[in-house]
Amino acid sequence: MENSYVLNVNEDFDFQISESDISSLDILKTDKGKFHMLKGGVSYHVQILSADFYSKSYTIKVNGDEYKVLISTPLNQLIKKMGFATNGSKNIDSIAAPMPGLILDIVVEEGQDVKEDDPLLILEAMKMENSITSPRDGIIKKISVKQGEAVEKKQLLIEFE
User: Fold this and answer.
1) Are 99 and 132 in contact (CB under 8 A)?
2) What 3-state class would DSSP assign to 6?
């Protein structure tokens, strides 16, 4: 099964793009944050104006027109499907790995106060770096993993007080 990503452009248009769609792009980096792309015989000049890795939010310019793009990865879609992105998530006292992966970075400490959507850790899964964010305001009670550790699906990652 091929991974697909949902891109939301300017908060009005959603479209899905697969890994094969991405790999078939004829794209060349021309400078830092600038690219030249050919698609269907049409030339596009693309520039990344701003990027927020944790929220997967980007501002890009394509042939002079500016767009705000939010990317939903397969992991984001799975988290939403599991109910973490709903109002019911406020009562969650722990976070488990949504899929097998590798802990690349832990950006919180035990005892730390966190707000909803604060980044907690970076999980590499399916060749993508994914930020696991806090589903609610709270205090980190226990971190059950270490940086560089491989985790299995449903393995406990973090507990809240």
Assistant:
1) no
2) strand
Find all residues with CB under 8 Å of 10, minimum gap 6, and list them: 67, 68
Rounded Cα gap, residues 144 and 8, in angstroms: 34
Query: 60 is written with which tokens?
Result: 């890009």
The pLDDT tens digits for 61-87 are 999 999 999 888 777 767 766 766 544
| Beta pairing class for 13-18 and 26-31 | unpaired
- CATH T-level topology, domain 75-160: OB fold (Dihydrolipoamide Acetyltransferase, E2P) (2.40.50)
SS3 121: strand
Model pTM greater than 0.85? no
Output DSSP code: residue 78.
Answer: H
**How many residues are listed for the chain in this entry?**
161
